Amino acid sequence: MKSPTANSGTKRSRIHVPASVATAALLLAVTACTPATSAASAVSPGGTAGQDAGVPALEVNQAAAQLLPESIKATKVLRVAIPTNEPPTQFYREGTQEMTGANPDVARLIGEALGVKVEIQVANFDSIIPGIAAGRYDMTVSSMTPTAERMKVLDFVDYMQMGSTVAVAKGNPLGLNEESLCGKKVGVLTGSYQLTVDVPDFDKACTDGGKDKIQTNEFQDTRQAVSALTSGRLDAVLADSPILNFAATQNPQIEIAAKYGFAPVGVGMPKDSGLVKSVSVALTTVIKSDSYVKALGKYGLESSAIADARVNFAQ
């Protein structure tokens, strides 16, 4: 069955799709560990410092730049929170503290369209929303799904689409998919859509059917969860499709059992801060550019491209 389009407005659905592992052989090797919070490289207006080769720089959208809050106009810096090492969406270049991947590239393109420097701040996913609330970050480009709960404290602008994936041990010995996880030991990332939305939905279906709830195990990154899966401590891992697809290409001990719920993810920023106006205009410029498609294509994420930068469209 065809996945929902980026503009369907449909909540991530429970659609079982035959698994296919996206190729990402062009990616560089990544470091095994990342700090909980750190600063990565920035990009200057009109330049591509930190931007990967092959992605053309964007001209400044003056209308978007004029809409920036006065505080950011004054500093000409946009502090962007991005999660820890999760290839291909974000990871450190081998031997450096420079972040690359689809999310950092999109963040830098937004900065170019706004004519500001982008300062990437690496943080654990579950610390990003509190960090924005505390004023440590101006926004996040972290594959965050715009849920109604998150939209109580953040404004969102769509920038990409992706689904969720069930990863299991090679051969899928338990015959699992997203509809057969009741009572199973399942790894999820702390604060993720899979933990906060999918698991409660699955648990309700389990209890309604007289079965045990999922035995949820939380992890700070997918690498830790996959390690627990391959060591036999978990029956499955739930995470964003690009991340587990890539993990499966790198680890012959796991495979993708199911994919479900294709829907947009958004750039998040403080609620009613005014930043959403400038970012939405900038993202419209980004999405219509060749640079956007090339940035996603470098990481095998062409199918994640969207056509419209919608504002506050809850999933």
From TrEMBL:
Transmembrane segments: none annotated. PROSITE patterns: PROKAR_LIPOPROTEIN (PS51257). It comes from the Bacteria. Residues 77-303 form the Solute-binding protein family 3/N-terminal domain. Residues 1-39 form the signal peptide. Pfam families: SBP_bac_3. The keyword Lipid biosynthesis does not apply. Keywords: Signal. InterPro entries: Solute-binding_3/MltF_N (IPR001638). CDD domains: PBP2_MidA_like. The keyword Ubl conjugation does not apply. This is ABC transporter substrate-binding protein.
